[in-house]
Specification:
The protein is of the alpha/beta class. The chain is 39% helix and 24% strand. It has ten helices and 13 strands. It has a six-stranded mixed sheet with strand order 8-12-7-11-9-10. Strand 3, helix 5 and strand 4 form a beta-alpha-beta unit. The termini are far apart.
Length: 294
């Protein structure tokens, strides 16, 4: 077994088939099939069930995904560690983030990190739920993950670094004079909401019970503020959005609600690359006031 075979195996998994994987790897499909067949012979198991012109992961194949990612990650970590000893100041931080932490504190963390490490690129993958973030970190798809949850995060298999707790605010062009504004004081208001299931949506649903109306529902939360600026309606957002909203010309008032978004950075328990370790070091020194350090 060699790293190339594992890379090919994961390419098939991540690209949903041999054809797309071959195109992604820039190799001929027969060469890819031959390499995987060799891996199956060495392991003594079938990794894929061939069905017509397609392929479906076998139980053995499903079990190999995590270890294969770990092996390739460890090889990259070893190379990056040797490069760092030689004084190489380049690399790539691979993290995954939920939408709201992807605005802040990701923006501030990236600014602080790239100032200290200008030769290292930060790559941010997207996920919508804490479970998606944790799965990608545990499986080695990414080394780091930003999550926002209602309370303290307890997640076996990863290390958790709490970063901040964000209150919720109401953002818009025309807002009630109250600050904080009661959720019961928005009868007749037009609201922009995320889909059901999030903390923001639960607050919005309380407002709807008091007579407010949802006029737009968007899955991509980065679309919410542009819709507010277009005058579509008001929106409930975590307080870390306030500086951005105000710079864009919107107003913000606190929502009178005990709900908070607790943001944490999770990391693989296995050895991290030097780039990821450096990002984690920056995160450990982070404070919410850094949002205002421009």
């Amino acid at each position: 077994m060699d790293a190339r075979q594992l890379e090919y195996f994961l390419a098939i998994v991540d690209n949903d088939g041999f054809g797309r994987a071959a195109a992604k790897l820039h190799i001929a499909q027969p060469s890819l099939s031959q390499a995987v067949a060799g891996l199956e012979r060495e392991l003594g198991v079938r990794l894929f069930h061939r069905i017509g012109r397609g392929a479906v992961l076998s139980d053995a194949g499903k079990e190999l995904i995590g270890p294969a990612r770990q092996v390739l990650r460890d090889l990259r970590t070893a190379k990056a560690t040797m490069d760092s000893l030689k004084g190489v100041q380049r690399g790539h931080v691979e993290l995954v983030t939920m939408p709201s932490p992807g605005i802040e504190p990701l923006g501030t963390l990236t600014r602080l990190f790239t100032r200290e490490h200008p030769g290292i690129m930060v790559g941010a993958d997207a996920a919508f739920t804490p479970d998606e973030v944790l799965q990608k970190v545990r499986e080695g798809v990414c080394e780091l993950g930003l999550v926002g949850v209602p309370g303290d995060l307890r997640a076996p298999g990863v290390d958790v670094l709490p970063l901040e707790s964000q209150d919720f605010v109401l953002v818009g062009a025309e807002l009630p004079d109250d600050d904080p504004v009661p959720v019961t004081a928005l009868g007749g208001a037009r609201l922009i909401a995320s889909p059901p299931g999030s903390q923001m949506r639960r607050i919005v649903d309380e407002m709807v019970t008091s007579g407010a109306e949802i006029v737009a529902e968007v899955a991509h939360r980065t679309s919410i503020l542009p819709l507010v600026l277009q005058g579509v309606g008001l929106a409930v957002l975590p307080s870390a959005w306030v500086p951005l909203a105000r710079r864009a010309g919107a107003r913000a008032v606190r929502v009178d609600s005990p709900s908070q978004l607790h943001v944490a950075l999770v990391s693989r328990s296995a050895p991290l690359t030097p780039a990821a370790r450096a990002f984690l070091t920056v995160a450990r020194s982070y404070t919410p006031l850094d949002h205002l350090d421009t």
